[in-house]
Design a protein that fits this description.
Strand order of the largest sheet: 2-1-3-4
Structural class: alpha/beta
Radius of gyration: 17 Å
Strand content: 15-25%
Order of helices and strands: EEHHEHEHEHEHHEHEH
Shape: globular
CATH architecture of the largest domain: 3-Layer(aba) Sandwich
Distance between the termini: 16 Å
Number of domains: 2
CATH topology of the largest domain: Rossmann fold
CATH class of the largest domain: Alpha Beta
Amino acid sequence: MASQSPHSLGVLLLERGLPPSTTPSLPKANSLTNPETFNFPIITETVPGAWVENVVRGDPALEPAYIAAARRLVERGAVAISSNCGFSVRHQAAVAASVNVPVAMSSLLLLPMLLRQTGPSGKIAVLTYDSAHLGEDLFGIDSSADRARIVVGGVEGGEFWHNEMKRPVPPTDVASIEADVTASIARLRQTNPEITTILFECAGFPLVAPAIRRHTQLPVYDINGICQMMIASIG
């Protein structure tokens, strides 16, 4: 087993609507905030006003709150910053410019690399919390040919999608995530047999990454991987 890194990852969290006195349930296996997921410590800051619905649809007024929370994490010792919602990639540039540590707000930052490591006939399946709001402007891809190799599937309308919209947010049901993600991937593969790689936009989906790898026999990338890379690069 690798030794514990002394470096802390800072994670920017969405609001969950729980009273301050509430003791949260233990994070589940492979969760971004589970201390057992990584070999380095995690510290967190909730971004005031950042609820699922306004982060997913894109609210520019949230940017100062993201910046302030990221700076608090650095003050507390974070050597890299991430977030628990891939749609916060909209604030990537502003947060990265505001702190002096590496920042990866979303696994979507991996898309250019995945396209380069995949043959020209292969496609990348991006699995998202809400495909209606995951526009091409969030891909960070300029080439129309490359954009054509990205196919998007979402879990909107499913149990996980509905629960995450509630205030307070109920405990995560891993089984419902697996069912929704599996069904979305199956639909995408029916119409896009060229899919060779899966990228999870949603930071909740790593909970089912091992199961999806087994089911699909395809490589699955997520926010956990990019966080591991950031901390490994620091040593």
